[in-house]
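> tool_call: predict_assembly(chains=two)
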Amino acid sequence: MVNLRIKSLEVLRHLPRVALNNLKDVPHSSWRKAKRILGSRREVNWPQKGQKQRQQYARLGFAGGSNRFYLEVPKEPYNEGHQLRRHYPPLSLGTLQLMIDTGRIDVSKPIDLGTICNTCLFNCEPKDRHFGVHLTAEGIDKFRAKLNIEVQYAKEPVIAAIERLGGVITTAFYNILCVEAKVDAEKFLKRGLPIPRRELPPEDAFEYYSDAKNRGYLADPKIIAEERLKLSQKYGYELPDISKDPDFAMLTYRKDPRQVFDGLRPGWLVNLRDKIVLRPTDPEYIKYYES
Amino acid sequence: MLRRVALPFLGRAGQRLSSTDIPEKHLDKFDVDNPNYTKFEVVSDPDVWSHVERLMPKKIVPPSPTEGGPSGWTPVRLTREEARELPYFVQRTRNHMLPVYQRVDIRGPRYVTVVRKVQGDPWALRNALKEHIKQIRGTDDVTTMVNELTQTVGIKGQLVEEVKDFLIMKGF
């Protein structure tokens, strides 16, 4: 028989740590006291005066207010809780092509949120819960670039437009701290903090980012290859063979799901003044930051 | 347990290589062999540093490309000599774009398409633009405005694309 104490400690080791994002009140800590009855109990239960004694209750249909409940204007609160939702500011394919034409974006290297924000032409505010870029289909007919792009949200026509030209698109999730690091990397590195480890998407976004149809970064690459072929058949174009492409290494490059910056691992520390990178060697650190 | 307290000093530890004047009370924080602080190694690989340099935002707008692209953007086609002979000139913005904007009146849908950064005679540009818009629309009803002080020319209506096409046709 396993020692219960050891077993529970082992379970505890795998449970999430207490942090600011999962703190909660102690159960039943906010219970109110029962209301004390003022005056005589008889008067409270059976009032001797007023509307209640004369039983002047409201007519049928009036539920507290001056409007009948069945005549009230129905509400459709589409924007309810908008401050808590994830927002993805849009970037159209036409604007992306314009950035490429004017030399703002280099197509010979993989493109991600950081590259788009470094042009200083795209506004992404992590403090307003902007979780990245939504690539929209506006200007889809003018798009002619072959690239490897990583965005946070894209729909089927956009995926088809990029893959038709021999490019690769991936949708990837960044938690808000990593978005902050990516949007203004210089500001983040000047703070002297280690490069964070990217968190996995939350429960309601996990399905999107693990679906091969959305080219999610958590999906199986084999299923993604099948879906690429299916999409080309659906839209009626011939899928270019990437394996024969001279930019094969660039097109097939993908970040680790826990990685934030290209070529830099989480936990590393960048010293901008002396132009060196510090890599922790403690096994505890390596274990904490490993993917 | 993670020794998180030691982390801020990791960043300063790199300065040890360049600066020699570390206060005596902080010397132990820069000691690599101190067991109280995180052990680290210095990566001075230029390949790794090239990745860091790619993260830095562009401080300067890149120079104007010599060729246009599929987005419809074109560089200025007029040469210096050709531009001198014209009665007017429209300067590009610092981002190599045409300074054509749409202004909206808050009260009611009243749109004015405005060309900024006009050099020379704005009336000549206004006359040429008016003729062009008349041909496109097929009517004589084209309302324009000219502001000589700010060197802007305006046309009533949502005509940004039309005005941009006209200016590109003229070589600006």
